[in-house]
Write a structure and sequence with these properties.
Blueprint: E1 2-9, E2 12-18, H1 55-60, E3 65-68, H2 97-120, H3 125-132, H4 137-153, H5 155-165, H6 167-185, H7 191-205, H8 207-219, H9 226-253, H10 257-277, H11 283-298, H12 314-331, H13 333-363, H14 368-372, H15 376-402, H16 427-431, H17 433-446, H18 452-479, H19 484-546
Antiparallel strand pairs: 1-2, 1-3
Length: 553
């Protein structure tokens, strides 16, 4: 009995046992990533494969990756606990489709609730400031943005914990923390209490962003994952756009405290459903539980999984997960530039969100509920951009791969057949939409043109922003295949710090420059970054990756 692993991505493996008549085993596949919008891999052809092993045929079509189990030192390890064959029903990838989609929808709900809470308070900031006697514009904005500061910290806690205790258990525990402190935000009596409770609720709310995507990776094989990823990926962007709409009506017709209590009620309902319907999906955690049960039943204490041992202790995992993202952020130019690009876009999104109450309530004299409806323009832009991004990005990538386009001809005779740089061409034309949208939004609002015009500008801005953001995200994942989790963690830290800090300087900037020139300043910077970042990485990306020990290719 020889043991092998199937890998759908760098962060998740599944093992199963394979009977072999040969004395030698199947040779390992080389790890060669072919990126998609989120992450999937197309393997090279197998060097050798036994004709009787049916799963190999699917591997040759690029559906998964077969490689020798790293813990297997000999031809057989009778004490290694793995899946009971490739069709083991306890393997989440073999669950019924209804069970997989139940998990997808519940995780997507968790991922939707937290971003909603991050911006739902925006229409209520004036009432909160009046009640707590907040006179500083920075403190007023901080009530909203401190939630994002917790987003920068939380993933470094929840990611390592999920590797030890499992994804679903950590996800639900973190959500209880969010539920508790989001609820007590509605009972806060001072601004200090409000700030502290918002930060702690953000710590809990960051878990779905950190590990929710891993649940989908556990449940779906690469070729079946697209629809699930599309639903999940939409939530972090549609949530911040829809939150203020509900927050505006709640604030106007009840009290700002119900902004927090209403989200807690919805979150509690999702939590109850998750406790009943969302089982553990992390393969390593499932196999650990299986090994414990087998040891108890058989009395054989030698039974183990490949995730048990000193290398997988809590201390080792925490040290590695905490240190590597910052090491990469300080040493990887490709990651630095793309992180800066993504951070600026993310910061702009929250900055624009923070300006809506001032623009539409003061300049257009709209009520809180009427002004909140203008956030829908951002939601329309995000949804439209995601639809276009997925289709065009795949086509652009396929075209570059088919024609073997070499972005760095002077340094390399010919490009590899699958380059992360093939994700970048789409970002260049659509990055122009970001400053165009900012110009339209800023100058039409300052001139008090019809309310439709600034909303059109905001929609164009959101449309271009989400496409550029997805291109940069795909490039980071493709470039740092094996270390994609650490790379995205580092990029997420920079991004959320921008989302936290940008709204803080917005009041001073707009007071000094006005909405027109303030947005123009941001537009000029985004124009420069939108041109420089994609072109620089297209031209020198291969060279930078060749100098890195973390990059693929």
């Amino acid at each position: 009995m020889a043991n092998y692993q199937i890998e759908d991505d760098a962060s998740d493996t599944e093992s199963y046992s394979v009977k072999s008549d040969e004395s030698d085993s199947i040779s390992a596949l080389d790890k060669l990533p072919v990126p998609e919008t989120v992450s999937s891999f197309i393997p090279r052809a197998l060097e050798t494969q036994p004709a009787h092993f049916d799963p190999v045929q699917s591997l040759r079509r690029g559906k998964s990756k077969l490689k020798r189990n790293a813990s297997q030192k000999s031809a057989a390890d009778p004490t290694l606990v793995t899946w009971d064959g490739p069709k083991d029903h306890s393997n989440p990838k073999n669950w019924p489709k209804s069970k997989k989609w139940t998990a997808t929808l519940l995780v997507s709900c968790f991922t939707f609730i937290s971003p909603v809470a991050s911006t739902m308070v925006a229409p209520a900031l004036g009432d909160i400031a009046d009640e707590y006697h907040i006179t500083s514009s920075i403190e007023k904005i901080l009530v909203m943005s401190i939630f994002l500061l917790a987003y920068a910290v939380g993933p470094f806690l929840w990611g390592p914990l999920s590797e030890v205790f499992g994804r679903v258990r950590v996800l639900q525990a973190a959500n209880i923390i969010y539920l508790l402190f989001n609820t007590v935000c509605g009972f806060a009596q001072t601004k200090q209490q409000m700030m502290a409770f918002r930060f702690l609720s953000g710590i809990g709310g960051s878990a779905p962003q950190a590990i929710g995507g891993g649940v989908l990776s556990d449940c779906f094989r690469a070729e079946d994952r697209g629809s699930a990823i599309a639903v999940y990926s939409l939530m972090p962007f549609i949530g911040p756009a829809l939150g203020p709409v509900a927050g505006g009506y709640i604030t106007q017709y009840t009290t700002w405290r119900w902004v927090f209590w209403s989200t807690s009620i919805f979150d509690a309902a999702v939590q109850v459903l998750a406790l009943a319907l969302l089982p553990e999906t992390y393969p390593a955690a499932i196999l650990l539980k299986k090994a414990k049960e087998l040891r108890k039943q058989t009395g054989n204490q030698e039974l183990h999984t490949d995730r048990e041992g000193p290398d997988h202790s809590m201390g080792k995992i925490m040290t590695k997960s905490l240190a590597r993202p910052f090491i990469m952020l300080c040493t990887q130019p490709a990651l630095q530039l793309m992180s800066l690009f993504r951070a600026y876009l993310y910061g702009l999104m929250y900055l624009v969100l923070a300006t809506f109450p001032t623009v539409f309530q003061q300049s257009y004299d709209q009520s809180v509920s009427q002004a909140s409806l203008n956030y829908l323009s951002l939601g329309v832009g995000f949804v439209g951009g995601l639809q276009v991004s997925g289709r065009l990005q795949d086509r652009t990538y396929a075209y570059c791969k088919r024609h073997q386009i070499d972005p760095c001809a002077s340094l390399f005779a010919k490009a590899n057949w699958a380059l992360p740089e093939y994700r970048l061409p789409l970002a260049l034309p659509f990055s122009i939409l970001v400053p165009i949208g900012l110009f339209i939004y800023g100058w039409s609002a300052q001139a008090q043109a019809h309310w439709f015009v600034p909303n059109m500008g905001a929609c164009i801005f959101a449309f271009g922003l989400i496409i550029c953001f997805n291109c940069a995200q795909a490039y980071v994942v493709d470039t740092y295949n094996t270390y994609a989790a650490s790379a995205t963690g580092a990029a997420a830290f920079v991004r959320t710090m921008a989302g936290f800090s940008f709204p803080l300087f917005a009041p001073k900037m707009y007071d000094s420059l006005g909405v027109g020139w303030g947005n123009s300043l941001l537009a000029f910077v985004s124009l420069g970054l939108g041109i420089v970042a994609p072109i620089a990485m297209w031209r020198w990306g291969i060279w930078l990756r060749s100098k890195s020990t973390y990059c693929v290719g």
